[in-house]
Structures are given as structure tokens and as C-alpha cells.
Amino acid sequence: MPDGYELTDEHLSFREVIREISRDKIAPRAAEIDATGEFPWDVARTLAENGLLGLHISEEHGGSGADTLTFCIMVEEIARVCASSSVIPLVQKLGSMPLLVAGSQEQKARWLPAIASGDDLVSYCISEPDAGSDAAAMRTTAVRDGDQWVLNGTKAWISMASASSAFSVLAKTDPDAGAKGVSAFYVRRDDPGFSVGRAESKLGIRGSPTCQAYFADCRIPADRLLGDRNRGFTYAMQAFDHTRLVVGAQAVGIAQGAIDAASTYVAERRQFGKPVGAFQGVQFMLADMMTETSAARQLVYVAAAKADRGDDDLTLYSSMAKLKAGDVAMRVAVDAVQLHGGYGYTTDYPVERYLRDAKITQIYEGTQEIQRLVIARQLLGRLS
Ligand code: CAA
Questions:
Q1: What is the pLDDT of residues 150-197, one digit of tens each?
Q2: Distance between CA 121 and CA 134 in Å, rounded?
């Protein structure tokens, strides 16, 4: 299987554009978004107006039909200045994946244009209070009643839930069949019996609302089933193959943002009569931070190219990209705080935010432990 990727002139020009948008429109808001914990509708609007919420959707359905590498560059550059804001396009892609993977032509034509324009933000509902890493243990049910489905249950940890108007929902249609009894549905915010709870108070990505979602005899039309009944778990895993690598891109962006801040600081801060950046110990730390971040970026870009080529080893590479980049982001952010000394521990400098934001990349879209499990299974199969 080929391992490379090609960074074309189009990718590089796109990076300049998204860098400018991030610098001018998002970076100035980042500290405030984190401090208030309010969803940045202005940022969502900016992304929508620039066609960035439909980057991954085909032109036929109103998007730009950009490749996965372009998508990763976008998320990376936004995360470099504001991780909370980078969750917006990241979840827009995740939430639309079941529709992209399993939706009929008619369903895609009906729902994708509003997602592509950003009129609909779309969340992804798989986890539950008692079904996190063990996603197949979900208990939310969907029962067919005439020409409707009736959903009951509670979903948890739903990123962007209070901002979204549409939801991809995984629910049990055969509760005794484990992963083989899960189906995928498309739910609208105003569907009867559907509601969203209050936002969790979180360590990081504080401007991205994470809520529970409740289904109390929630009735949706029969044609909201995506793909085949009882095949939903496979669609959910296929979705992750395309989006775990995007969390990797987000982690690379956070790491790069922490390096940017630390480089500026050590060049300015003087101790013992010279900039602290003149000390070899500090230089070596920065050199390691940059090398590790660059290595993680290469793995993310290779995984992105694999997604576009449809390579057989995408599952392996997507998990490896997320694992490597998430761990690098966490280490780099810790070191960036260290390089700031006491100042890094305060909200006067952005690195404590990068540290808090980095942590989520080791947790969501499958913990690092789940990525290792996926990687090992790709290597060994299922030994018992
Ligand atoms: N592609 C296609 N099919 C796949 C697949 C893939 N990558 N991975 C698994 N499957 C299929 C399997 O082939 C199997 O189907 P068959 O029985 O027909 O062969 C079926 O799915 C079940 O697979 P497993 O037996 O491997 O399932 P499992 O119960 O052992 O679980 C798991 C596997 C990898 C641990 C999975 O449960 C998992 O990914 N857990 C983590 C959940 C997760 O990532 N949650 C994140 C929540 S969303 C989020 O965080 C988003 C956000 O906020 C931004």
C-alpha cells in the first residue's frame, strides 16, 4: 500500500487562505471563547460564509468537494489559534459521515445542501452514559411503528449538541444482537420527543458545547433510517476511519500553536542576562517539540491521502495518526507551559489553554487506549 501524500500548490494556497481567516477572525476571539464558554456563532458564520462547513461535501450537493488533506489543513490551522473553533468543522464532518457513507441518493440530495451551506450544523450521537469505549453496549432503542421509527434513550458527550439542528444517531434495532443490532438514523432538532440537555462544564474546548441528548418516544419518519437496518455499527466505524485522522490534524494544530507561543516567549523573556531561548536546554526542548509535531503531521497527512485513495489500511493509519498526534500535542503543550515558567500557569498567556485543549484529543473519537486496540487488531486480527 503506498505511504505518501502530495501537498499540491492548491493545498498550499488554501493553507494561506485559512491561515489568514484564522489569524484575523478567530485568533482574536480565542481567549474570550475559552473564558466565557459560549459557542462562537460568529466563528461558525465566518466558516459558513467561506464555504468551510461544506468543504468535505461534493459540489453536486452544494459543497466544495475538497480532499481530506485540504480538510485536515483547515482543522489544523484553526486549532493552531483556537481549538474550540476547530471542533465546529470537525464535528460537521463526523455528523455528516453516516449520511455520506450510507445515505441514499435521495437522502443526500435532501439533507446535504443545508449541511454544506452551514444552515444545518450536525452532531454525531453514539456514546451513552454507560456506553463510551464499548459503543456496541448502547441501550437507546429504535422501534418501527407503522411508517415511523420511535426512539428512546439517552446519548451522552454529544459535541456541539446545543448548536446543532441535525443529528446522526446510532440506536439498537435488535437489542440482543450487540454490534449487529445497531442502525443509523437522521434526527432533526424539532422532531417530537427529542431534546438536548445542559452543556457539561469541561476542562478544555470550553467554547464547544458538549451535552446529553434525550429521546422520549421520539418519532421520526421511516425514511430517516440511513442505509440498511442493523448495519449502523459498521457505518459508525467507517465514519471514524475518516474522522479520527482529523482529530490528529486538530492535535497537530494545537501542538503547533503551543510551539508558536513558546518560541515567541523564550525569545523575549530574559534571565541571567540573556533571552532564555539562548540556553541550550531550552533550545533542545523546542527542537524536540517541533520534530515530534512535524512527525505527527506527516502521519496525519499520509492517513488523509489514504482516505482519499480508499486504501485498505485506512483504519490502521487513521488510528495511528490520532494516537501519535494526540500524545504529541499533550507532551508539547506541557513543555510549552514549562518554557513559560510561572507565567505559563496563568491565563495571561495562551499556553495553559493549549494544555487544557490538547487533553481532549487523547479522549474523544475513541481514547488513546481504543486506538491502540484498533491498531493491534489490524496487525494481529482478533486473537482469543
Ligand atoms: N470499518 C468497517 N467495519 C468495521 C470497522 C471499520 N473500521 N471496525 C469494526 N467494524 C465492524 C466489524 O467488522 C464488525 O462487523 P462484523 O461482525 O459484521 O464483522 C462490527 O463492526 C463490530 O466490530 P467489533 O467486533 O470490532 O466491535 P467491538 O464491540 O469489539 O468494538 C471498538 C470495537 C473499536 C472498540 C469500538 O467499539 C470503538 O471504536 N469504540 C470507541 C467508541 C468511540 O470512538 N467513541 C467516540 C465517540 S464520538 C466522539 O467522541 C466525537 C466527538 O465528540 C467529537
A1: 999 999 999 999 999 999 999 999 999 999 999 999 999 999 999 999
A2: 26
Does 233 sit in the ligand 1 pocket, CB within 6 Å? Answer: yes
CA–centroid distance, 128 to ligand 1, in Å, is: 15
Calculate how far, in angstroms, residue 191's C-alpha sits from the geometric centre of ligand 1: 28
Cα atoms in the Cβ-side hemisphere of radius 13 Å centred on 24? 8
133 ligand 1 Cβ < 6 A: yes
**Cβ contacts of residue 60 below 8 Å, gap of 6+?**
none
* 155 beta partners: 213
Any catalytic annotation for residue 365? yes
Residues making up the chain, counted from first to last? 384
308, burial (CB in 10 Å: exposed 0-12, middle 13-18, buried 19+): middle
Of the candidates 218, 204, 309, the residue with the CA atom closest to the CA atom of residue 257: 204
Q: Could you tell me the end-to-end alpha-carbon distance of the chain, in angstroms, rounded to an integer?
A: 28
What is this structure's pTM? 0.98
Q: At what angle do helices 351-360 and 232-268 cross, to 10 degrees?
A: 160
Residues 6+ apart with CB under 8 A from 129: 154, 156, 212
